[in-house]
Design brief:
Cytochrome Bc1 Complex, Chain A, domain 1; 2 domains; globular; alpha+beta
Length: 461
């Protein structure tokens, strides 16, 4: 899930459950001796405890360029044996506790999250610390996971709907740390060793870069004692952590096209992308309403024109993907090979129309109500609050951010939404990636970009 969109969905979910005056409860906070910042909220409405631990500088953007995929592979291996327990034993212990534990590498950070019944929280915390602080990184598990990922890349290339997202990310973010794919490439994986994973782990997993949020049924004193005990072996590094500063995202100049030839494809898949918004953007509320109206819901302009009216596809959408240094606005869909030219022309016409005339008042009211009326059940939990606290702290946002954003959604008028359409809808500068049968679609694509060509069988994306 994309961070800014996720923050926004959490806003609507949390707000929806508490009415227009909703405020996310401010957590209590303290620091452990090793430098880790802890946020906590006591909530005894259910006998559960949920947590999220975020480590800055341990995501894909921090991995060495030659080790593409190392962060995500490291995260997977942390669950595949720790403190002398095998991967199976770790899984069985979680099953016995009826608990959940996940470790994931994002672009900007590594995250650990989990939940259990309150009476099993001490055991879940202990197991989490085993995986975080004492991973085995065994040669056998490394080889097994590396081979699985190489097979996964082949599987992605067999599915153009998945492949186009990987090719687009590489094409748009070429040379930027965010252009490193979680799955890696055949070349990077084959060159990688378990020693590389261990070295990256030692450099990236630091307590002074960690944010922990715990929400649920516990006493503050017992929580603090438990955290101090379990994290006592995670020592503060003798050197100060380097500041994690990521460069701005690339800005496309002109109409840049990439056609990936998949000779057996009967359909063509495309993504058009241009600059979007950063996580911290004062116009995020109006941008979300705009995106909802253009391609963010089933009744959007994009889907209505391409699917309902013209029958070109079963689905079309637009998305906003955001990070600290910037973001992306993309539209994507697919159609029969012989119709890809028509689909691209209609899509670009819709972008131009939205930028030129915007949306009428009735549409804007509908878009605001749609955004404010979302109730994603998975965000109505202890975990939604734990995620909110760590995300807000990571991005330097106040804990009353959600209340303010909700208010700004409600006050986003037609002009504010139109301003975001003018700002974000690409006209002359964009990246367009198409995966399909080149022999049948190349001529149709010519008017839309200056094209580069690749084969689906080439290494990497």
């Amino acid at each position: 899930m994309k961070t800014a969109t996720l923050l926004f969905m959490m806003t609507t979910a949390l707000a929806a459950g508490s009415g227009p005056g909703f405020n996310l409860p401010a957590p209590q906070t303290f620091k452990l001796p090793n430098g880790m910042t802890v946020f906590y909220l006591q909530d005894r409405s259910l006998p559960l405890v949920g947590f999220r631990l975020l480590i800055n500088g341990a995501g894909a953007a921090a991995e060495p360029e030659s080790l593409e995929g190392a962060a995500d592979l490291m995260a997977e291996l942390m669950m595949k044996g720790a403190a002398g327990k095998s991967a199976l034993q770790v899984a069985e212990e979680l099953d016995e506790l009826g608990a959940d534990l996940q470790i994931k590498a994002g672009d900007e950070f590594l995250s650990l999250s989990g939940q259990s019944l309150a009476r099993y929280w001490p055991k879940l915390l202990s197991l989490t610390c085993d995986c975080l602080l004492r991973p085995d990184f065994s040669e056998a598990e490394f080889i097994k996971e590396r081979e699985r990922r190489i097979d996964q890349i082949k599987a992605i290339k067999d599915n153009p709907s998945h492949a186009v997202t990987q090719y687009f990310r590489k094409a748009y973010l070429a040379g930027h740390p965010f252009g490193r794919l979680a799955v890696g490439s055949e070349a990077s994986l084959q060159a990688m060793t378990v020693k590389d994973i261990r070295v990256f782990y030692r450099s990236a997993i630091r307590p002074d870069q960690a944010l922990l949020a715990v929400v649920g049924d516990f006493s503050p004193a017992e929580l603090r004692n438990g955290l101090e005990k379990n994290f006592s072996q995670w020592k503060k590094s003798g050197t100060k952590a380097s500041a994690v500063v990521l460069p701005p995202l690339p800005l496309p100049r002109g109409k840049q096209g990439l056609l990936v030839d998949k000779p057996d494809a009967s359909q063509a898949y495309f993504i058009i992308g241009a600059p979007g918004i950063a996580v911290v953007d004062q116009h995020a509320a109006a941008a979300q309403v705009m995106n909802t109206l253009f391609g963010g819901r089933f009744t959007s302009r994009l889907n209505n024109e391409l699917r309902v009216k013209r029958g070109l596809t079963y689905g079309a959408r637009s998305t906003l993907e955001s990070w600290r240094p910037g973001g992306l606005f993309t539209i994507s869909s697919y159609t029969r090979n012989e119709k890809i030219g028509e689909m691209l022309q209609v899509s670009l016409d819709l972008l131009r129309q939205a930028a030129l005339v915007g949306f009428d008042e009735e549409e804007v009211v509908s878009g605001r109500n749609y955004v404010l009326g979302q109730f994603p059940p998975k965000f109505e939990t202890l975990m939604s609050k734990a995620r909110a606290y760590t995300d807000l702290a990571f991005y330097g946002l106040p804990f009353d951010y959600y209340a303010g954003l909700l208010s700004r959604v409600g006050s986003s008028d037609r002009e504010a939404v139109h301003a975001q359409a003018r700002r974000l809808m690409p006209q002359e500068d964009y990246v367009l990636v198409v995966v399909g049968k080149a022999e049948e679609i190349r001529e149709q694509l010519a008017p839309f970009a200056d094209w580069k060509f690749r084969s689906i069988t080439d290494d990497g994306f």
